[in-house]
Amino acid sequence: MSEELYNLPLYYDVAFSWALEPEIDFFSQLFREHVPFPVERILEPACGAGRFLVALPRRGYRMTGYDTSPAMLDYARQKVEEAGTSGAVALVRAEMETAVFPREFDAALNSINSLGYLLDDEAIVSHFRLTGEALRPGGIYIVHMSCAWDGRLHEEGSTWEMEHDGVKVKTEWRIESEDRDARRSHQLCTMEIDDRGTKQVLIERHELRLWILEEFKEQIERCGTLELAAIYEEGSKHERVSLDAHINGEMGNLYYILRAL
Known about the structure:
By secondary structure, the chain is α/β, with parallel strands linked by helices. It has helices at 3-6, 9-15, 21-34, 51-55, 70-83, 121-134, 213-223, and strands at residues 41-45, 62-67, 89-93, 105-110, 135-145, 158-164, 167-179, 184-195, 198-209, 226-233, 240-241, 254-260.
């Protein structure tokens, strides 16, 4: 995530403020199916503005979220305090590739391809290793991301509008290009912001890791603390995808379930 957007946590929060209940229902299903003990403590790398730090404690979970941005952490801290969930939430400033935690978590989650901001193999492997070391054996890390496209990219991307407390944000997010040789996905985010009558347009380009499933599997194997246990589609049914399936960007974001060894 770029510095400019990440220093504007209110607009970021409004833009991504869709209802989380269906996704949390799915997480609860994954916990029941894949974790051999009750899930109580959850770690969230790249927690951002704290959407899950409010929603998951309302279901009885205890959360630890970490992020690199002081502005995001301050915003998330205020958000959980206002929601009354601060007693079940800890916030830490840390980088994904170096964050070290005690082995006390039952699950971890990484939403909407935040993992993609780790560009290099060594950073990815380090993050996987450390996250696996923070999970109790049998716990799971839910990673939400998309892989490289096989065919032509959808030029229109995704567009949505959200509003909260008089602040309106219309967001367009699309992939501009993919560089398979460099393993980079070049993406464009445009936000039209109406903050109670004050209007601005924010345009940002993002460079993310271009994911290829076989390499992703190799990175998990190299880390030594996690294994790929399952893959699920988005959508209301969350159909399971074979671990041997050919996966590409045309399938959209998928949920990858990594189990701690």
